[in-house]
Amino acid sequence: MFFDSLGQIYIFSAFIYAGIICGIIYKILTLLRKQKVIGVILDLCFCIVSTFAFLFCALITNFGQIRLFMLVGFLIGIFVGVCTLGKTVANFAILIYNKIRNMLKFLKHKYLNKGIKTNDGEQT
Q: Structural domain tally of the chain?
């Protein structure tokens, strides 16, 4: 009996971790929403991916048996992932996006907008 409870704590923590990862993925997907149609498609993709993540975690940790405390742990993990770590990861993703965008603008300005020199020595 005591050993069964230890296994449930392990399973519960595994589902919290899986939920945190899904919450971070959800927060990153919210950055990609520009239109309502894209938002609906991304939400549908998230639901499918998180369902597979839940079932995979259930298969790995509890041999495919699904119990209520596993769902509770997964939902707690998603909540923690979206509210805490998701914001940090989203801010980091925005920072990297802006750095890459600025670097591409710089390279475009430096190499593509130089102009072409003609035989007269003028730039066009």
A: 1
Q: Give bridge partners of residue 123 from the DSSP assignment.
A: 117
Q: How many residues does the chain have?
A: 124
Q: Which of 101, 103, 105 is nearest to 113 (CA)?
A: 105
In a domain, 120, yes or no: no
123 inside domain: no
Residue-level pLDDT at 45: 93
Helix%, strand%, coil% for the chain, nearest 5: 80, 0, 15
In a domain, 106, yes or no: yes
Q: What phi, psi does 123 have (nearest 5°)? A: -100, 140
pTM greater than 0.85: no
Chain centroid to Cα 96, Å, comes to 14
